[in-house]
């Protein structure tokens, strides 16, 4: 199955480079290019691509607003993968809140970018580990508040698993960290989504940041 991609970046040379990298994969087809978030949303509505590769900082309509507009289309088949130059960027967090499925850095290896596109297309979330660690260190309160609201109903183990999810660890990595079985971790993640009324791991990440549930154990990963 071919993954249809729209590339959104305000710099033509960057768009050309991303197109070249993705076109090298036989199962990825770049079907459109956009210079800002508004154009990306318009192409998403017209072309219905599988993945929009979205820059964050663009003049005019930035990638955050572009992501919001794409999510407003309410087409679950269109996924947004944020590509950023900065490994510490508050806007990346805002893009996740807007509905992006993950983020990678622009210096990512070509093969890894292709894998990232396939990963989000398959319905999974993807986070560049270096960005996640910096987000944890910069945007998590030094003295987090006591759990309240939905967070208050979580068990200690669930809060621990949630913190590690937000730190960018996979289920397998969480299992190794906590010395648990992979199935057990998967069950914890499923229970978290149900208890908190959230859709996916991206929303778990945002929830954990906003409720101060990303602890030192996650940041060290």
TrEMBL record:
One of its GO terms (biological process) is phosphorelay signal transduction system. The modification 4-aspartylphosphate is found at residue 55. The keyword Secreted does not apply. Keywords: DNA-binding, Phosphoprotein, Transcription, Transcription regulation. The keyword Phosphoprotein applies. SMART domains: HTH_LUXR, REC. Residues 4-121 form the Response regulatory domain. InterPro entries: CheY-like_superfamily, NreC/VraR/RcsB-like_REC, Sig_transdc_resp-reg_C-effctor, Sig_transdc_resp-reg_receiver, Tscrpt_reg_LuxR_C, WalR-like. It comes from the Bacteria. It comes from Pseudonocardia alni. GO terms for molecular function: DNA binding. Residues 147-212 form the HTH luxR-type domain. This is DNA-binding NarL/FixJ family response regulator. Transmembrane segments: none annotated. Signal peptide: none annotated.
């Amino acid at each position: 199955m071919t993954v249809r991609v729209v590339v959104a970046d305000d710099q033509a040379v960057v768009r050309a480079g991303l197109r070249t990298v993705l076109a090298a994969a036989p199962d990825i087809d770049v079907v459109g290019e956009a210079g800002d978030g508004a154009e990306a949303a318009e192409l998403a509505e017209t072309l219905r691509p599988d993945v929009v590769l979205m820059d964050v900082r663009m003049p005019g309509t930035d990638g955050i607003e572009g992501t919001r507009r794409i999510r407003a289309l309410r087409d679950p088949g269109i996924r947004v993968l944020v590509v950023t130059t900065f490994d510490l960027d508050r806007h990346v967090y805002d893009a996740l809140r807007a509905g992006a499925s993950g983020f990678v850095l622009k210096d990512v290896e070509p093969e890894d970018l292709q894998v990232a596109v396939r990963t989000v297309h398959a319905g999974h979330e993807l986070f560049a580990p270096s960005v996640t660690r910096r987000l944890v260190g910069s945007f998590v309160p030094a003295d987090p508040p006591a759990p309240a609201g939905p967070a208050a109903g979580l068990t200690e183990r669930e809060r621990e698993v949630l913190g590690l999810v937000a730190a960018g660890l996979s289920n397998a990595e969480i299992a190794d960290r906590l010395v648990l079985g992979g199935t057990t971790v998967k069950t914890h993640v499923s229970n978290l989504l149900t208890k908190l009324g959230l859709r996916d791991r991206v929303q778990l990440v945002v929830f954990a940041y906003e409720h101060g549930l990303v602890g030192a154990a996650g940041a060290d990963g």
